[in-house]
Design brief:
The chain is an alpha/beta fold. The protein is built from five helices and four strands, in the order βαβαβαααβ.
Amino acid sequence: MPGLAYVFERFPSFTQTFCYREIAELRRQGVAPPIFSIRRPVDEPPQDWDKSVVQQVDYLPGDEELVREVDRSLRKGKLPPAAADEIAKWGRQSDFLRLYQAAWLGPRLQALSVGHVHAH
């Protein structure tokens, strides 16, 4: 399945066991989709998961660093105009970080030629 990626709120996490098994099976079949997690897991019980899957997870930067990176990309004109316009319109309303997370993640997904995101 080329062009597939996974995006999680927190991963690895016990609540994402089904998704972990899905990813492990894809890898067994020779497909290694990129895995992104918005946050790192906190106080998770230990799992007997394949370390090569867990180590493949790319974590988004923390909130302050995320805002700095996206603001820098905005100043340098590195984001699509539509994204820049939406971020400007939204300002610092509640949940503005979701827009910033999408703005950070979008270019990375495009660079990986991802056409389908499985989000949890």
